[in-house]
Design goal:
single chain; 1376 residues; alpha/beta; six-stranded mixed β-sheet; 42 helices; 60% helix; 9% strand
């Protein structure tokens, strides 16, 4: 019969260090068996249901089943032994043995179903058998202990239990072996297995990460070689799920051994449990990142085009999404902190009684202060994010216009403008940083003063007699720290909550913006169904576009279109003309569905519409990719479109042909080439309607005639394909060929005219045939193209040395110190060290107190003063760091970036993708100014706190000091091994985000085109692909970080085990107070060492952002001036005379061959002359733009260019350009006030009256006044391309009159204006610029009517110079 003691619940067997049999059988056998039985139906359902088999039935399955069958046999044998032995029989033993037998049978079902019907290895099986193995160990000990007590049969049962334990171990091992899926994707990854393909314990202890770390330690990592992420992280799938929810919203020896064992179990269990939690946490973070990034992109495609062109989505994607990720940890840690706090107070009550409740006094004070501080922090963080968004938006806009900015001499003034934005951003950030300092002080107050108040209450109130012993005081202190730690975390989480709330609020505000509404009716789908009668149906079927009484209003209520009723027949050519600002673009946007009518109805025959804007939208891809887009390639059709747009000879001149990169915003192409490329895309698309907005404005007369004839002539491509073409144009010489001519009257009405009312080409200009002339010299190339293609780097990654990617660069620390200032940094480091040491002083002081005079109450005053010193030192260090150090480094690095950017060469500008450069200003600057300072501050505090802790451990027991030194060496080696891979993963994460950033920018600027072509799905697929690619290094960076945390937690477990083992085994080697102090310090040592290496690694990865900034500043080619050149007089140039003497310039193509842009060009333009620069027609490139750039010293050339007799190579470039009034074709526009845009130059500003007077000259004054005057934002004017050119002309004349410049250079500055407005502007120019030299590039003949001299270029040579009186009126040149 079982002894009476074992029939008791226990749990401890009286007089023994063991559990009772009753307790063991209930909790170690019955409960686990019940869990297995309850889980079986879920797996049986997969076997008997319709679930498809995922895994091959291999040897692995049969091995598992064989082990499971063996386990069943052991269970049967145990059941028999329990039942045949009369002295062991009882109801509980019967229940335990029978349930264990049933559970063994169920285990076979679970093993079979989990293996065949799930691709993943079963976490349930691994966890269940691992936990039951631990329970079996206890049962084995119990059975053999009973055998020693005289129960002989217990030996046999114990042996069977050992066999069962080994079988379970074998099952756990087998469950870690990868399975072979039925699909073809079962191939193993070359570097490391995906964590979705490894077993439960492999995932938990991150053992699979070792192969990734080993490869990264010795090799270069690449995104393509990283393991594939699991399907659960597919961004498209995550977004689809998100969309559904968003739509709804919107004995002494025994005791000592047990203490050591408990230490291992507690700290080891913490390491494993935290590992499991952390893995789930970062998986959710990765999912949130994917969801929000794709959601922002999707929203950007849906909102109005004007909203889409803001940089809000880019800022939200790069900054705010990271803030939202923090919420994952906050959601779970909040309730955990509450539970920890309740348990801690209960335990503390056992030591000091009612004084335990005093722990809430400092917490309450800190909570009240934190509430108001966090409220302010949320507000200030929102303001800071707005400033960041404004700066990035301005930077993005200026990077796109950098070439024009340099040409106009705006480099200095606009770099100051951006730097001022950065300064304003930093000033705003100081508000948030001050609240952060207050939060730090409140955290220090709570951490330091809580022990003082609670222990003071215990010593002078609840435990005044008898006084607490050293053991009690240290135990109470430990519990106080356990209680105060959750409170500290609570206050830290409030900081994060405030910051994350501001981020998620901004994202939500963006996601609920009103979306673009398409009010058009498609006759293709509903025209016949809703027709009133048969004739009406036939009428609708013959129309491509039908407008009935359509009225469209502008933002100020003005009727841009008023009661328009027009029917456009299918397969017709409709041409729309009118003065600048008459509503042509609005008319086209209404047809596209981008503008919603206030009243009336717009019907279209098909939604397959193509679109080409006057300012083409080009992606940074090849010429072919830009033309084809997401459409399927049709070689015959492609060649026909290329020929029709006269691009065939252009492409033939390029070494890479149509595989040539266009560059950011088409910067590698000329204005005319860009327009023709956009036109080609619209005609290649399978659309029945083509909407074209003045797509011939940048083409010279003959090229325009060729393109027009090939595409829209009687036998043109559009006619042959039956495309309905609706074209807005300012070229009245082409209206004769239209089927319908619509004139915008300017008052909102539209008049229909007859094409026969307009003269044919023979009556006006001698039109060329549709045959393009061939080049006389094959080396003649497009000068703009040559300017840009010098071995394209538009898609190249940052030039980082391979070895440096793995090993890091210690010189970065020197670079950082110099940027901060060594003296300021030394002062801060000194305060930081003092604060770190003082933080540990209260515990050290208690040890001294209770070692010297535990009964002396005066020591309590010293204890309190140490706590107060902790608060003061922490606060002072934070104030100095955030108010002095951080603003200095933030301003300095941004300024260095700006200097490198605005001083860069033209070749670099045209070769470098804006997304890469913008990444420096957004992500890298954000890392350096936001994350790096926090990490650096944490590292310094944690490092010295860790050193202090190790010293305390070493002092606690004599023999622990060498072990602590060994631990330090292990930690150093650990980070050395780890850093090589983590650096590379961080770099890959940043580099893979650049293409996504570029896609966001391109989509923002091309939203109207994407919607018109109905390419949203294809672009969304591109976004998801780039997000998935970006997620890989991001995910694996988290994985290696958690591997590091796990190893450090195990190290802490080792330290605790060593300390307890030495203290219990060699009590003479230490004292009670020393051990107490060490145990108190041990409470935070795990997190200290974890944070030390983690923050160290974070610092290294953050330095990656600093490295990229330094590399950018060091490697970006700069324009250099002659430092020894003589001083330039203040009145230079005084006449504006230009002498070009034997100037030659050549550029290098991608294949390394040189091509001539200017070939020994010579010409003299006298003071006061208006010189027209024209070039040869067709695709032979003349060199007009190269000559233009040579005059501005933006390209290097041989020969001499003199202005007023002075060689311009001796004049500083920026000074040269500031002394010239330059009007480029695209102009420069800044998201600031109208006043700023009218005069963005650094020189003394004109008064408002002068600005408004100049705007009145170009008929824009009333428009400005209606929007609120000069303080209104430039974007509020919503100017058309023609009106923008009027604005830029007004700015040029204002610049000339204000600064009295003598040289004015214009590069097709009136190409978007109609004939009448252009003629008026030419008269205005002649009247206001009659006292200076005018250098004018134009392809319109009437623009040269008043020219004094016309210079004709061909293949870079000056072939003709005609003075007034010669026949230069027909000397029209081609585009550049």
């Amino acid at each position: 019969m079982v002894p009476d003691l074992d029939n008791r619940f226990g749990p401890q067997l009286v007089g023994h260090f063991d559990f009772t049999l009753l307790f063991g059988q209930i909790f170690f056998e019955i409960v686990p068996a019940t869990l297995m039985i309850l889980a079986t139906p879920f797996y049986a359902k997969e076997i008997t249901g319709k679930a498809s088999q995922q895994i091959k039935a291999s040897v692995l399955l049969w091995a598992k089943m064989a082990v499971g069958a063996s386990l069943l046999s052991v269970s049967i044998a145990k059941t028999v032994l329990w039942q045949v032995t009369s002295e062991l029989q009882s109801s509980r033993s019967t229940a335990a043995s029978v349930l264990s037998l049933i559970a063994a049978i169920c285990a076979l079902v679970v093993l079979y179903g989990a293996h065949l019907y799930n691709k993943r290895l079963s976490g349930f099986i691994s966890l269940f058998f691992t936990l039951t193995m631990l329970l079996d160990l206890s049962l084995v000990r119990t059975y053999f202990l009973r055998y020693d007590m005289g129960l002989g049969v217990m030996r046999s049962i114990g042996v069977l239990q050992i066999v069962a334990l080994l079988l379970k171990l074998f099952l756990v091992v087998l469950e870690e072996v990868a399975k072979t899926p039925l699909d073809s994707e079962a191939a193993c990854d070359s570097i490391a297995p995906s964590d979705s393909r490894v077993g439960f314990w492999n995932r938990v202890i991150f053992f699979w990460v070792n192969s990734l770390l080993a490869h990264g330690f010795s090799h270069e990592l690449d995104v393509g070689t990283l393991p594939q992420l699991d399907e659960q992280f597919d961004s498209r799938m995550l977004f689809d799920k998100f969309s559904k929810h968003w739509a709804q919203y919107s004995s002494p020896k025994g005791t000592a051994g047990g203490l050591v064992g408990a230490t291992v179990l507690i700290y080891g269990g913490l390491a494993v449990s935290q590992s499991i939690y952390a893995r789930n946490e970062y998986q959710i973070k990765v999912s949130i990142r994917g969801i929000l990034t794709v959601a922002l992109y999707d929203k950007m495609q849906r909102i109005r085009a004007d909203d889409a062109q803001s940089a809000a989505a880019v800022t939200l994607m790069t900054t705010d999404v990271l803030g939202v990720e923090q919420i994952v940890a906050l959601l779970h840690e909040t309730w955990v902190i509450t539970l920890e706090l309740a348990l801690g107070v209960y335990i503390l009550y056992q030591f000091i009684g009612a004084a335990c409740f005093l722990v809430f006094i400092p917490s309450l004070v800190a909570a009240i202060a934190t509430f108001y501080t966090a409220k302010a922090m949320t507000k200030y963080r929102g303001e800071w994010n707005e400033k960041i968004s404004s700066r990035i938006q301005a930077t993005s806009a200026l990077l796109k216009q950098l070439k024009d900015i340099k040409a106009m001499g705006l480099s200095h003034s606009l770099s100051e403008y951006l730097q001022q934005k950065r300064t304003d951003e930093i000033k705003t950030s100081l508000k948030e940083r001050r609240t952060r300092i207050v939060m730090f002080a409140l955290g220090a107050f709570n951490y330091a003063m809580t022990p003082v108040i609670v222990l003071g209450g215990a010593r002078f109130w609840t435990r005044s007699t008898p006084q607490m012993s050293a053991a009690e005081i240290f135990s109470a202190y430990s519990v106080i720290l356990i209680v105060s730690t959750p409170l500290d975390l609570f206050f830290e989480r409030i900081i994060l909550w405030a910051s994350s709330y501001a981020c998620i609020t901004r994202i939500q505000e963006y996601l609920v913006l009103p979306e673009q509404e398409d009010s058009r009716q498609c006759m293709e789908l509903s025209g016949y169904k809703h027709a009133l009668d048969e004739k009406k149906a036939e009428h609708d079927a013959s129309l491509a576009v039908d407008m009935e009484n359509v009225t469209v209003q502008s933002g100020d209520g003005r009727e841009v279109l008023k009661g328009v009723s027009i029917g456009i027949p299918a397969s017709s050519l409709v041409m729309v003309h009118g003065t600048v600002g008459s509503g042509k673009s609005v008319f086209l946007q209404t047809i596209l569905g981008d503008t919603k009518p206030a009243s009336g109805r717009v019907s279209i025959s098909s939604r397959n519409i193509s679109f080409a804007a006057q300012k083409p939208w080009l992606r940074n891809q090849t010429i072919r990719q830009n033309i084809i887009g997401p459409n399927e390639f049709d070689d015959g059709h492609y060649r026909a479109v290329i020929h029709g747009c006269a691009l065939d000879i252009d492409i033939a001149q390029l070494p890479s042909g149509d595989e040539t990169m266009t560059g950011t915003d088409g910067c590698n192409l000329s204005g005319g080439q860009k327009q023709r490329l956009g036109l080609a895309r619209s005609l290649f698309a399978p659309a029945s309607i083509a909407v074209l907005d003045d797509v011939l404005s940048a083409l010279d007369t003959q090229t325009a005639s060729i393109v027009f004839g090939r595409l829209f002539g009687p036998d043109g491509l559009a006619r042959r394909r039956g495309i309905t073409v609706i074209m807005a144009t300012n070229r009245e010489d082409l209206l004769y060929a239209a089927d319908i001519v619509l004139k915008m009257n300017g008052d909102g009405t539209i008049a229909q005219q007859r094409a026969t009312d307009f003269p044919t080409p023979s009556e006006t200009t001698p039109f060329a045939s549709t045959q393009a002339p061939t080049c006389h010299k094959t080396e003649a190339i497009d000068d703009k193209k040559k300017t840009s293609i010098v071995k394209s780097k538009t898609v190249a990654s940052d030039p980082t040395n391979d070895k440096m990617r793995r090993n890091g660069d210690k010189s970065l620390y020197v670079y950082f110190v110099r940027a901060v200032g060594p003296y300021a940094l030394f002062i801060w480091l000194a305060t930081c060290i003092i604060a770190s040491v003082v933080e540990q002083m209260p515990q050290i002081f208690i040890k001294i107190w209770y070692s010297v005079a535990p009964g002396n109450d005066l020591y309590f005053v010293g204890f309190a003063m140490m706590a107060l010193a902790n608060i003061v030192c922490t606060s002072l260090s934070g104030i100095f760091f955030f108010v002095k150090i951080v603003p200095n480094i933030s301003n300095e690095l941004h300024f260095r970036l700006l200097l490198a950017t605005v001083g860069s060469t033209l070749a670099w500008i045209t070769q470098t993708d804006d997304g890469i450069t913008l990444n420096r200003y957004s992500q890298d600057i954000s890392i350096v100014s936001q994350r790096l300072p926090i990490v650096l501050m944490q590292l310094c505090f944690i490092f010295w706190s860790t050193v202090t802790s190790i010293c305390i451990f070493a002092a606690a027991a004599k023999y622990t000091a060498p072990i602590m030194l060994l631990l330090l060496a292990v930690l150093y080696g650990l980070q050395y091994f780890y850093l090589r891979t983590s650096r590379q993963l961080r770099l890959l994460e940043l580099e893979t985000s650049a293409p996504l950033l570029t896609l966001f920018q391109e989509t923002s600027s091309g939203a109207r085109h994407i919607r018109a072509f109905r390419w949203q799905k294809q672009f969304m697929a591109d976004c998801c692909r780039l997000v998935d690619r970006m997620q890989k290094p991001y995910y694996y960076l988290f994985s290696v970080q958690r591997w590091l945390a796990l190893v450090l937690d195990v190290s802490t477990c080792l330290v605790a085990t060593i300390l307890i083992s030495v203290s219990t085994a060699l009590p003479s080697s230490t004292t009670g107070t020393s051990v107490g102090l060490a145990l108190i310090t041990l409470l935070s040592f795990s997190s200290l060492t974890n944070h030390l290496v983690t923050v160290w690694v974070m610092l290294e990865t953050c330095l990656g952002g600093l490295a990229r900034i330094r590399t950018f500043c060091d490697t970006t080619p700069q324009e250099t001036d002659d430092a020894n050149a003589p001083t330039v007089p203040d009145n230079w140039p005084s006449s504006g005379k230009i002498e070009i003497d034997a100037v030659s310039a050549s550029y290098e193509y991608e294949d390394g061959t040189l091509h001539q842009a200017l070939d020994n060009a010579s010409v003299v333009i006298e003071h006061g002359e208006k010189a027209g620069i024209v070039g040869r027609t067709g695709s032979c490139f003349s060199g007009k733009s190269s000559l233009f750039l040579a005059l501005l010293h933006m390209i290097e050339c041989s020969g001499t260019v003199r202005i007023d007799g002075r060689d311009i190579s001796t004049v500083p470039r920026e000074l040269l350009r500031s002394r010239i009034t330059t009007l480029t074709q695209d102009g420069v526009e800044v998201s600031e006030s109208i006043r700023f845009n009218m005069f963005p130059f650094a020189e003394s500003k004109p008064d408002d009256e002068s600005i408004l007077g100049m705007l009145d000259l170009v008929d824009l004054g009333q428009c400005v006044r209606s929007q609120g005057g000069l303080d209104a934002d430039m974007a509020s004017l919503k100017l058309t391309p023609g009106q923008k050119q009027l604005f830029f002309v007004a700015r040029g004349i204002l610049h000339h009159t204000t600064l009295k410049t003598k040289l004015v250079m214009m590069d097709e500055a009136t190409s978007s204006m109609d004939y009448g407005v252009d003629k008026k502007i030419q008269e205005l120019i002649d009247g206001h610029l009659n006292d200076c030299t005018v250098f004018l590039i134009a392809h319109r003949l009437h623009s040269l009517d008043n020219a004094d001299v016309v210079v004709k270029l061909e293949a870079g040579k000056v072939i003709e110079v005609t003075r007034r009186g010669g026949k230069y009126g027909t000397a029209a040149g081609p585009e550049r």
